[in-house]
Amino acid sequence: MGKILVTGAAGFVGFHVCKELLKQNKQVIGIDNFNDYYNPLLKEKRAALLTNKNFSLLRQDFSDYKKLFEAVKDEDIDLIIHLGAQAGVRYSIDNPHVYEEANLKGTLAIFELARHKHIPKVVFASSSSVYGNTKKTPFSEEDFVDHPISLYAATKKANELMAYTYHHLYNIKMVGLRFFTVYGPWGRPDMAYFSFFKNIQEGKAIKVFNHGKMQRDFTFIADIVQGILAATQADLTYEIINLGNNSPEELGTFIDILEEEAGKKAVKEMLPMQPGDVLITYADISKAKKLLNYQPTTSLKEGLRQFATWYKENESWLKEL
Fold first, then answer.
1. Among positive and negative, which fits the CA dihedral 219, 132, 231, 40?
2. Which residues contact 207 (CB under 8 A, 6 or more apart)?
3. pLDDT of residue 11
4. Are strands 205-209 and 215-216 parallel, antiparallel or unpaired?
5. Which residues make beta-bridge pairs with 124?
6. Do 123 and 79 meet the contact criterion of CB atoms below 8 Å apart?
7. How much is the pTM?
8. What average pLDDT does the segment 95-102 reach?
9. Where are the alpha helices (DSSP H) in 141-276?
10. Which is more confident, 276 or 12?
11. 163 close to 111: Cβ distance less than 8 angstroms
C-alpha cells in the first residue's frame, strides 16, 4: 500500500488524524507551512508528537503547486486527506486574500497533484459554514447552499464544486466532509472554547456575541477523526457528508460547563452578533451514519472535561499563546 498525504498535518484536525494513522502503522507524509495565524508554538508541539519512523513532514506551503509536486514526485501516494486551509469566519472579513491563496489556490494545487500523480482518492475538509443562515434545521446535504455569508464559507463551497469537476473529468474519488464546530485537546486558540477557558483561568473577560443566544453543534475531535478515517475506507465516488454531533447546544450552556471545569465564574462582555456569524448550526448525520457507519459518542460535557484536563496539564506553556 502507498503512503497517505495529509495536508495541515500540524493543525488541530490534521494532527489528530496523523496520530491515529500512525497508530495503525500507516505510512504518512504530512505537509504544513506553520503559518502565524495563531502562535506556531502550538503547531511545533503537535508536530513533535508525530515523530515516528512512518512519518515524514514537509514544512512548506501546498498552494505552491510546483514546489508541492517536486517535493512528492517520487513518493508512492494512494490517498490524500486534505485538511489544510485558512480557518476562521471573522478573520476572512479582514483578510480575504489569505483565503484565496490557501483555500482556493491551495485546494486546486492538491487536486492537480491527485490528477497528475494518478492518486485515486481525496478526502477533504469542508465546513458547516456553507449552510449560511438557513432557517431549516437540521442541516442536510440536500439543502440549498448558494448563499454563504462569509468568504470562508464561500471558499469551502467552491472547494466542493472544484472536487466535483475533478471527479467528473479525471475519475478521482472525492469525499467532502462538512465539519461542525470541532473542539477538543490540542485545538485552535482562536476557537471560543479555547479562548474562553484560557481567559476564565486567567480572570480575563470573555466576549459573548449575540448575548450567548447562539447554538452550535459542537463535535468532539475523536468523533471527527473516526468519521474522516471511515471516509477513507468507504467505497464512494463523489459525496458531500456532514460530520457533526446532531445535538446543538446554546453558548450559555457551553460557558456554564467551562466555568465548572475552571472552578470559577467567567467575566462576560456581552456583545451583538458579529458579521459572518450564524445563529445555529445543526447537523443531520443520517447520511454519515448510512455511508460511514458514523456515530458520535462524546457529549459536550465529557468533551470539554477532556479539553480542560489537557489545558491544565499544559498550562505553563499554553499561557504563551
1. negative
2. 269, 271
3. 98
4. unpaired
5. 82, 176
6. yes
7. 0.96
8. 96
9. 151-170, 192-202, 221-233, 251-262
10. 12
11. yes
Residue 11: closest CA among 37, 22, 72, 194: 37
Task: Say if strands 173-179 and 121-127 run parallel, antiparallel, or are unpaired.
Answer: parallel
Residue 191, amino acid: M
Q: What is the largest CA-CA distance in the chain?
A: 56
Q: Active-site residue among 152, 166, 294, 311?
A: 152
CATH architecture of 3-186+218-246+282-296: 3-Layer(aba) Sandwich (3.40)
Cell triple for residue 249? 447546544
Residue 152 annotated in active site: yes
Q: With beta carbons less than 8 A apart as the criterion, state whether 180 and 128 touch.
A: yes
Question: Rounded to the nearest 10 degrees, what angle do helices 40-48 and 12-23 cross at?
Answer: 0
pLDDT in tens, 303-313: 999 999 999 99
Q: Is 5 within 8 Å of 281 (Cβ atoms)?
A: no
For residue 276, the model assigns a pLDDT of 72
- What residues have CB less than 8 Å from 223, skipping those under 6 apart? 243, 245, 294, 296, 297, 298
Exposure class string for 12-29: b at 16+ Cβ within 10 A, else e: bbbbbbbbbbbeeebbbb
Q: Using one digit for the tens of pLDDT, what is the confidence trace for 210-229? A: 888 899 999 999 999 999 99
- The pLDDT tens digits for 107-131 are 999 999 999 999 999 999 999 999 9
